[in-house]
Records
---
Amino acid sequence: MTSAYSQFIHRQVHLQQSNPEIRIHYVEAKPTGTQKGTILLIHGFPESSYQFRHVMNPLSSAGYRTIAPDYRGAGYSSRPLTGYSKKILATDLHELLTKHLDITDPIHIIGHDIGGMIAHAYAVQFPSDVASLIWGECPLPGTTIYDEFKHTSALWHFDFHSVPDLPELLVSGHEKQYLKHFYDRLAQNPSAFTEEDLEFYATLYSAPGAMRAGFNVYRTFEEDKVDNQRWLKEKGKVKVRAMILGGEGTLDALRSEDMAKQVNEQVVAGVVQNAGHWIAEEQPEIFTRKVLEFIEQ
C-alpha cells in the first residue's frame, strides 16, 4: 500500500452482520475550508478504491468531502456469494452514505468502468440524492453499444468471466499476470502502474473469493441489461446533469457519447487527454480538472 493511499481515513461499515455478511470498506478525504459538497468515487475492475489515490487529495482540497468505497466483493470489503447486479451494488453504496455516514444532501457521483454501471444504477434509483453524474469507460448493459461489442475480441473477457467456475480455476496462482494484462493493454501510459501498485492489486485479488467476486460482477450483466431497459421504459432517461468521461485513447472513445445519450437526458462528453482506460491513474491532474470544471458549473 502506498503512502498516498494509507494517509486517507480508512473505515468499514456493516450493512448486514451475517447470512451473508455485507461489510463495506471505504476511504475518505476531508475537505479543507468550507465544504462545497460530497463526491462519491466508484472504482472498476480489476481495481479498488486504491484507483483514486492520486485524485482524492486534490478533490478534497477543492472543498469536497471525498469518499471512495470498495464495492461489495472488491478490495477490503466482504465477498458474499451473491448480490452483484449493479442495482444491488448501487443500493449498498446509497445505504452506506445515507444511513451510516449521514449524508443527506445530493452528491456528485463519479463512476469508472464497472463503477460507471453502478453510478448509472445509483442515479436511476435515487435521483433526488444526486447532484451530478460523471461516468464512463464501460459499455452499459441495455444500450446498443453493449449488444454490439459484448462478444467481440476487444471485450473477450466479458464472455470468459461469465463462464461458471472455469475462470477462477485458470487464473488461480496467476492473478498478478492476469491483472497486468488489462493494465498494460488498456493504458496509453502503462508506467502509471508501478511495481508497488501491481503488488497491491495482486494481493487484493489473490485473497480467497476475490476473483470469484470480480467475475460475478460480469456474470450479472444480462440481469443489468434487463434492469436498465426496464428503468428506461418506466422512468425515461436519467434527468440528472451528466458527463460521459473517458480517455483519449480508449477503445470506445468514438461511441461513448452516443451511448450516454441513450440513457441520459442532459449529457456532455469529456476527454482525458493522453490517457487510455485508466484515466484517474494515467492522468490524475487532467482527470481532477475535468471533474471540478463539470461539477462546479
---
Amino acid sequence: MTSGGETAPTEAIKPPTVGGNYELDENIIPAFPISGTQVLSAHCYGMSLWGRTAKIIARIPGGKVETYFLKAVPGELGRTMCEGEYESLKAIHSVSPTIAPRVYAWGRFSKETPPTYFMLTEFREVGEQPPDPVKFTARLAELHRNSVSPTSKFGFHVPTCHGKLTQVVDWDESWASLYRKQLAHMIKLDEDKNSDWPEFQPVCQLILNKVIPRLLDPLQSNGRSIKPCLVQGDLWDENTATDMSTGEPFVFDAGSFYAHNEYEIGNWRAPRHRLNSKSYVRNYKRNFPVSEPGKI
C-alpha cells in the first residue's frame, strides 16, 4: 500500500499473492533460457500499475522444476519499459547477483492488440518490504561502489523509465548537466499533460538555471570528482524486498542509469516512504560517505 501523506504508513506491506490462471502467449515458450522447457502452470501474481504480472512454474529437461516471473505491458511505452527494465536488471545482476533477479528475455507477444511487450526473469518470492536496513544499505552501497560506467560518463545505453515516465539518459560527462536535462524533461511532461502554470514557470527556470548549477557543479570542480554509479533508479519501499529463499535483499522494477550515487536515496527523503527512516539513511552513509563538499 502506498501513502501520499506526510508520514510513512505503519502497517506492513502485503506480500504479492497468486491469482487466477494466466494465458501465456506463444512467444514466451522460446524465451525460456533452456530449450525444451515444459510449462506446468501460469498464474497471475501480485499487481502492476502499468501492465500484468505472472508466476510461471515449468519443468526443464531432466525433470527439475523452475519458477519464472513474467511482466507484460501494452503499447510503445511497454516496449520502452520492458527493454529498459531488462537492461537495468541485467546490468545490476552482472555487478551484484544477489541484489537483482537474473533476466532471461524481453520481447513482443505474437497476438495482442495493441502490441504488448514482455520481460521474463527468474522468480524471487517477496518477503519483508523494505528489507533489513543494515543488510540492504550495505548491499546497495556495494552495487554503487563496484559498478563501472562503460563510457566513464553518466547515463545509460538504452532509454529507461521512472514508473511510466521516460527518462533522459544520454551519456554526459557532467552530472549537473544530465540531472538538469532530466528535470527539464519531467517538467515538460507535466506541462504537456496539465497545461501551462504561469506561477510555476519562474520557479522551474530558477531551479534549472540557478539552483542545480550551484548545488551540483561543485561536485565536479576545483579538483573534486564523482564516480558514475549504477543506480536502481526508482528505489522506494515496494521496489525492494527480502528474498524469502536466501534472506538477501533485492530490487526490481528498475529504471537504471549511471548517476551520482546520492541520487539513489533521493526518494527516501519523502516522509511517506518507510525508507525515510534514519536507520536506512544513516546506514547507507556509513557504507558510502557523502560526496564533498556538501551534506545530504
---
Amino acid sequence: MSSPASSISTSTSPLLTYILANEPPFKSRARLPSLYSSFHLLRATNPDGYTANAIAWETALQHAVQAGVVPDQKDMLSLQTGEELLGALELEGEGGLGRPAGVGGVVDEAIAAERMIPREEFLAVKRNFYEGRGWARVSKRFLGWGLRQLGLGGGGNTPLPTGYFVMIGLVEEAGRKVLGDLKPRDTQIDRVWPMDRFKHEAARLLGQDSGLTDSDVRILLVHLSRDKSQVAYDDQVVKFRGSGEGDPSISTQDITIASLKSLIADLNAQIETLASKVGVSAEKARLAVSQKNRISALAQLRSRRMFENLLEKRTQALLQVEGVYVKIEEAADQVAIVQVMKESTTVLRGLNTKIGGPETVDEVIEGLRDEMTKVDDVSTVISQAGQESSGLDESAIDDELDMLEKEQHAEVEEQESQRVGQKLDSINTPVLPEPQRSKDSEKAKDSNGQTLSNTSMSLEPAETTTVDKNTSAVGRMSINEPGSATDKETQEKHVAHENADAIPT
C-alpha cells in the first residue's frame, strides 16, 4: 500500500503548481504532510518546527503575489485571502492532503507581527508606519489572536481571515526599487513626473508588463510619501524630494511642468504612429502599382500625403513645446543658482561681520607683529645673559686652541720627516758585488784591530761625505723621469760607487 505522500496529485490551480515547483520546502514530498497539517500544536512541543512551517507558508504566499498567480487578483502588493485562496491551495487525488490547516494561523500571526496590514487601514492611517507601530491593535477583528496566544481563545485551527492585506515586505522592496531608479538627482524640473509616466515606469521596474493596478499605485505612493517622506503627489503629479530639501510639496509650476512633459510624451507617441502610417501607406501604394491597381495606389498616396502633413504639424508643435520646456528648465536652473548665491551672500556677510572689516584685520596683524618682536627681544636678552653668567675668558680659549693646532702641526711635520728619513736610509744602503764583499771581509780579518780603529777614526767624515753625496744623488733622481728603467739603474750604480769611495781603506 502506497503512502499518502507518494500518491499526491496536484490540482490544476496555477497557484499550487507555482508553489510546488518553486518553493524549496514544498518540493519535498516528505515534508508536505507537516506543512498541510494543523501545525499550530508544534508551537509548544517543537517551536523550531512551527517557525519553519510558518515562514515557508508566508514566503510562498509572498512570492506567489509577486508572480501574479493568486486567483482572482492582479495586485502585486497585497494578498486577497478567503475560501478561494484555500481552494487554490488544496491537494486533491488519492492520498491528497486537502486544504492546508495552518494557513489561517500563519496569516493571523503575520498580521499581529505587522508584516501584513489590512489594506483599508494601511491607506487610511495618517501617521508614519515606522513611528509607534501598533497596527494590529487598531482593528478589533484580530484581538482574538492575542487571546489565543495566552491560551484564552480556545483550541483548534485558526480560521483564515478574509479580506485584502498589504504585504509590507513587498511594499518596502518596491519602494527601494522606485527610489533607486526613478528618483532624479539632477535639476529641480527633473523631479516632477506626470502621474501616467510614473505608473508606466514603476510597472516596468516591478516587472508588471500589464501595468500596476490603482490599488498598487496608491499603496506605493502612500508608502513613499507618508512613511519615507520622499514624494508628494496628487491625481496628476508625482514630485520627488530633492537633496537637502524638506518635505516636498506640489506648486502650480510643478503642475505646469508635468503637463508639458505629458504633452511632449503624447506628441512623441503621435509622431511615431504617424511615421509608421506614412511608411505603411507608401508600401501599400507600391503594392497596388505592382498589381496594376491605379485607384488603390492613388488612395494610398493620398493617405500618405495626409499623414505626412499631419506628421509635419505634430513635429512643429513638438519643437515649440520642447522650446518652452527648455526655457522653463533654464529658468528653474537660474532660480536654483540665484538661491545659492543669496545663501552664499548671507554666509559671507555674517563672516565679514565677525571679522570686522579691513581696519580690524590691520590692527590684528600690527599687534601680532609687535608681540613677535617682543618674543625676539626676550630671546636676545636671555642669550646675552647666558654668555655673561658663564665667566669664561674667550681670548684665552682662542689662544689655547691655537696652541693645540700648532702642536698638532708639529707632530704631523715630525712624522713626515721620519718617513722621509726612513726612505733615505733605504736608498743609502750600498749593494756591493759578491767579490768585493769577500775582499773587504778578508781585509777586515787581516788587519784586525788596526782596520777597526782606522774605520772608527775616519767614520765621521765619511758619513758626512756620504750624506752630502746622497743628498745630491736624491736631487738628481727627482729630476729624472720616475718611470724610466735606465735612469733608475744608473742612479743605483752611481750611489753604490759613491758609497764605496766613502768607505775608508
